[in-house]
């Protein structure tokens, strides 16, 4: 039980900070969608941030996971492994960044954003900083320095949010003479209205640059070195992980990269393809609540389960953790899907027509989270080639799904393709895992909760309640009822867990050897 508590504690710490930070960041969605009322204005942001995520996987080469694995096996070599992995990332990142900065005008024309060369360059610098700081962040997780990790992330989010508000609201209003006329000469010096949505990239870049100061202790002891035998060992382990990560990114980002190009012109009356991409990209952010739960769990789970690799009780622990992970994610799926009428107010009016994609995206993320849990079998057994195979299959499903469904269903086709890919990956991973690393998962429980939640969401969406004073209490009551049903079903487990928790809180008897 102590191991379970440790994982829960770390997940809570990473989770509260990650959720709070991302919610602060999500507060920018109404700022951005109201400031840029035409969805096409944010189309390039949606697409370029997808490329940033793609490049980050290529730059880091899966070395974060390799660092976890080798640091857990040989803790005494952690400083050397840290230097080796970070040195590799620095070399790759430096070369790629120079190329991107040089080719930025050509890339802007190729992406059909010819006037946004500076946006490309800022994006290149953003991904460079993210890549270089990824290994120091991994070091904090390996060394169980969650508070330092959290502090750096929170300060970064605060800076990015503040700079967005400063550029997009304050500078814009002062420049246009709405208030504080005495500051207009200063604002004219730093603010150019032609940049517009580009200030989102600039704010991100300036916030990320602060990481080098915030993580200065995590860089301690780093020496640039290229120990080729060690690097080869790290690379051979990490390369399949990188391909897995790349396929995962393709699964998550193909929709935003394909939508503008595969959507027939005029598919949505009165909207351009750029408008459709802007709508999809902003509505997609409402699935952030599920992604946050998954990300928070993974921050704690990766180093935790690697440290338990040789423990004979690891399969049973993984099964229990996965069961409760699914329960929490199901409650998030229900809570968000039933309250889209309220959550939709967070985005500008012209963006709300895409809210129908959110329940499917949430379900896709739920299955993706289950897959990440199941995937520990090939990481713990050093059979990462299976992870590559599974995610490549998922990527193919995503690519083909978007190519065929976008022309027929528009951005709803993107959501369906993502869900299909996540389900396929989860099923394949489970079947292979049962052969190579059996884990006693409670499959009946998982399918029951997901099916029941899906039926509830579908039924509630068929009931149109235009009055929010009736709709909101009704939806909250349905959510509460769902939580109560789960509590009744799991009452024995909850009662046992509560009893163990209370016992663990009692002080040890005087004279006890414990």
TrEMBL record:
The keyword rRNA-binding does not apply. GO terms for cellular component: plasma membrane. The chain crosses the membrane at residues 12-29, 49-72, 84-104, 119-142, 154-175, 195-214, 317-336, 356-377, 389-409, 415-433, 445-463, 469-489. It is found in: Cell membrane. The keyword Lyase does not apply. It comes from the Bacteria. It is a multi-pass membrane protein. Coiled coil: none annotated. Keywords: Cell membrane, Membrane, Transmembrane, Transmembrane helix. This is Polysaccharide biosynthesis protein. It comes from Fibrisoma montanum.
